[in-house]
Amino acid sequence: MATPVNAINAINSVKMLGKGSLVIIGLSIIALAGLSYLTNMPLSALLAWAKVVFGWSFALLFSGLLVTGILASQKLRKGCNPYYWYEVGQQAANGISTLALTFTLLGISLGIGSLSDQPLNPENIQQIISNLTKQFSTAFMTTVVGLPAASLIRAWVGIQYYAVMTKEESKA
């Protein structure tokens, strides 16, 4: 049976997760509005473009790792088990980097693989090059988004960890 203290801690954890989720949703809405304004594209066209460029698998894996990194940062800021949450945040950032580079290499591989399926002749070279550049554009976009996001998570978690550790050292 749960003690009242454990029940309160569980409720507080759910509240913190809820607040964190609302912050992420709010920032996502602001980012989408900003992108829509900067690109002069309606939201539906922007989301369709993102689906074509990134695909659902990258978007879901990236989002999960990003949320994990942000959660680790929030836990560090609260001073919860800093060694553990620092490592969780660093591994989430490493996962984002690996994911971005993996999808880049996958896109390049698929693009090069598509060349072997078609005969090259003067009549179809324009179409083949067009398809190849689309696949390469998709491949490199995962790196353009993933590596900076990973660096930001890694830096933010590191700064939070340093702040917590400095505070603990000053108490001693």
From TrEMBL:
Superkingdom of source: Bacteria
Keyword list, A-Z: Membrane, Transmembrane, Transmembrane helix
Keyword Transmembrane helix appears in the UniProt entry: yes
Statement: the UniProt record of this protein carries the keyword Transmembrane: yes
Record-annotated membrane-spanning stretches: 21-40, 46-71, 92-116, 136-157
Identification of the protein by name: MotA/TolQ/ExbB proton channel domain-containing protein
Organism: Paraglaciecola hydrolytica
Lineage: Bacteria, Pseudomonadati, Pseudomonadota, Gammaproteobacteria, Alteromonadales
